[in-house]
Amino acid sequence: MKAQKKPNKITETSKKRLSQIYVAAAQLFYDKGYDATSMSDIADTVGMTKAGIYHFIPGGKKDLLFAVMQYGMDRLETNVVTPALAIADAEQRLRSVVINHSRLISSGSGRDGHNPVTIVVDEVAGLSPAQLRKITQRKRAYLDLVRGTLQQLKDEGKLKDVDVTVAAFSLFGMMLWLSRWFRPDGRLTSEQVSEEISKFALGGLLRPQVRLGHRS
């Protein structure tokens, strides 16, 4: 019985430490690239020994990359996907996606004020085929949500004459690029920038007469 209880206790007490490891690893993968980042680099960043990192991630750097991506997708689902799925109105759903995803990127815990976990999702070269399939499936589900929302708007006559797949990928590019230029000590806050991106995105996609806040 004691042997069965121990893993549960470790899992609970290790949750915060794992989050620190994921964020630190993501930041280093983002700054240096996956190949150039060592487990020693990650250990130094979080103030642990390399053996301590392997205690949490026994499979090594490849499994750590996968864990970071899973963690990032979990946060995306919690903060962006789940709230959006609860919204029936396609305009409001699209606005929710853009604002919440932009906020997730720009209000992170990395040293630049970004959420590095959300911007390493394309570091897939280090994944095994099985791991890559899992991450690809989760990314595809998010794409399908946004593309489906845009298709609903198109069917309702509210979308401009644009291809929904091109529009969906363009939205992702715009939000992910936020990590390249947003600064937490800049003129606009994360909340303000997220609202501005939402206004720009919806203004460019929706027909003027049905744009949020501008119905006749």
How are the SSEs ordered, and which strands pair?
Layout (H helix, E strand, L loop, with lengths): L1 H31 L6 H8 L3 H7 L4 H25 L4 H17 L22 H27 L8 H18 L8 H16 L11
What would you note in describing this structure?
The chain is mainly alpha-helical. The radius of gyration is 20 Å and the shape is elongated. Helix content is about 70%, strand content about 0%. The relative contact order is 0.11. The protein has a domain at about 60-210: Tetracycline Repressor, domain 2 (Orthogonal Bundle), CATH 1.10.357.
- What characterizes the major β-sheet? none
How do the SSEs run, as a string of H and E? HHHHHHHH
Assign the CATH superfamily of the domain at 60-210.
Tetracycline Repressor, domain 2
Q: What ranges have pLDDT less than 50 throughout 5 or more consecutive residues?
A: 1-9
The residue fraction in helices comes out at: 55-70%
Chain-averaged pLDDT: 85
Quickly give the CATH architecture of the domain at 60-210.
Orthogonal Bundle
Q: Indicate the radius of gyration in whole angstroms.
A: 20 Å
The coarse overall form would be elongated
Strand pairing plus helix content: what structural class? Answer: mainly alpha
Number of helices: 8
Instruction: Return the CATH class of the domain at 60-210.
Output: Mainly Alpha
Distance between the termini: 67 Å
- For the secondary structure, the number of strands is 0
- Please state roughly what percent of the residues sit in beta strands, choosing from under 5%, 5-15%, 15-25%, 25-35%, 35-45% or over 45%: under 5%
CATH topology of the domain at 60-210: Tetracycline Repressor, domain 2
